[in-house]
Amino acid sequence: MNQLRLPQQSNIPSTTIPLPSSKSESNRVLIIDALTSGENRIENLAEARDTQTMIRLLKKDPPIYDVLDAGTTMRFLTAYAAITNKQKVMTGTPRMCERPIGILVEALQQLGAEIHYLGVEGYPPLAVNGFSEQKTDLITIRGDVSSQYISAILMIAPLLPQGLKLELTGKVGSRTYIEMTLQLMKQFGISYTWNGNLISIPPQPYRPTIYSVESDWSGASYWYSLLACAESGELFLNGLKEESLQGDSKIVDIMAHLGVASEFQKDGIKLTKIPVKGMQEFDFTHCPDLAQTVAVTCAIIGQKMEFSGLESLRIKETDRIAALQAELAKFNAHLLEGGDGRFTLIPSVNIPDEVTISTYDDHRMAMAYMPLMTKTNVIIEDPEVVNKSYPSFWKHVEMLTLIKNQ
Ligand SMILES: O=C(O)C1=C[C@@H](OP(=O)(O)O)[C@@H](O)[C@H](O)C1
Ligand SMILES: C=C(OP(=O)(O)O)C(=O)O
């Protein structure tokens, strides 16, 4: 297996990181663009494999949409194929075929789409066989498994002849991603209301728009973590805005407690080290992709913390709770399950001279553990796993001269 060796380096030279664009924003505007009659101008699309896969499938329109390991690409294209009356097989990596999609399929079937399972019920691969006529304008959808099902339905809703009233039930997780979807739709001319649990979208066309995708806050989180863990340093992250559509911009508040100050400037954000104020607990329900970053940061800087809202981590690129637990234990840190949906992060008091991190086909496992190099020599297994969201990640690490003598 391919490995990357990161020699220990505790001081970070002042560096500007040219962050990649957000794959979440990119994949939404690509679907909206495909549903819009007329010309949009979309700038700064993500380099992420998830986005490049979406671009390729929309452009080539093959009979089989193989999304690889991209969750949003799978969920958004399934709804897109249904509403545009296409006949498609939806498939992906073996892990993608273990990630549930039944809630979305059922909602689309209720609306009038013909979809059936080609393997295990509730999971890809699927056959989408088009859309006959709209059967209802009111559907109820659970919000506690993945917000991506809701975003997928919302984006096709304006094109339904009767529009849609979508009632969300249960605990709604990743709400910030639903808000991102609606905010983007609004920028492309869509009006909607969201009262309590009911989102209503009348039938209407998307309006052609010029849109520039913001840098990726989830990707930014690893640089915050690096600085939090380092002895000294200063970083500038390009292309981030104070008013962001991305819920992972919450990293600003979290890191203000864990030792990193953010100063918004014209072209991005300047990060500097400040004393650690400490943080007792954090609920990751609406920013699940930050959980690995924050867990590893706390483990390294000696911050004990209670974590909640980790439910969705079990059905992402890997079971992220199990993966986090196994890799934290390699440097004597622990994520202990409390049984009530709560976890306690016990930081390390003894980091070995060298730690080898397994990455579980999960880009965030590789990126989240990079900052461990501020304390010890780290070996990252299968480093190319970062390509899913941040292909230039290791090139950017190299800019800090952290990977020398390769
Ligand atoms: O809509 C999106 O762009 C995403 C939503 C989240 O997934 P869930 O809604 O499944 O939590 C997040 O984890 C994922 O990386 C991207
Ligand atoms: C969970 C993620 O992506 P997706 O669900 O789109 O595969 C992620 O990028 O962390």
Automatic annotation (TrEMBL):
MF annotations from Gene Ontology: 3-phosphoshikimate 1-carboxyvinyltransferase activity
Record carries keyword Transferase: yes
Entry's EC annotation: 2.5.1.19
Biological process according to GO: amino acid biosynthetic process; aromatic amino acid family biosynthetic process; chorismate biosynthetic process
Chain positions recorded as phosphoenolpyruvate binding sites: 23, 71, 99, 148, 320, 364, 388
Gene Ontology CC terms: cytoplasm
Pathway linked to the protein: Metabolic intermediate biosynthesis; chorismate biosynthesis; chorismate from D-erythrose 4-phosphate and phosphoenolpyruvate: step 6/7
Binding residues annotated for 3-phosphoshikimate, in chain numbering: 23-24, 28, 146-148, 174, 289, 316
Keyword match Isomerase: no
InterPro entries, sorted: Enolpyruvate_Tfrase_dom, Enolpyruvate_Tfrase_sf, EPSP_synthase, RNA3'P_cycl/enolpyr_Trfase_a/b
Subcellular location: Cytoplasm
Region annotation Disordered: where it falls in the sequence: 1-22
Primary location recorded for the protein, binned into one broad class: cytoplasm
Residue positions of the active site: 289
Residue stretches making up the Enolpyruvate transferase domain: 15-59, 69-395
UniProt xrefs under HAMAP family: EPSP_synth
Family affiliation: Belongs to the EPSP synthase family.
Biological function: Catalyzes the transfer of the enolpyruvyl moiety of phosphoenolpyruvate (PEP) to the 5-hydroxyl of shikimate-3-phosphate (S3P) to produce enolpyruvyl shikimate-3-phosphate and inorganic phosphate.
Name of this chain's protein: 3-phosphoshikimate 1-carboxyvinyltransferase
Gene that encodes the chain: aroA
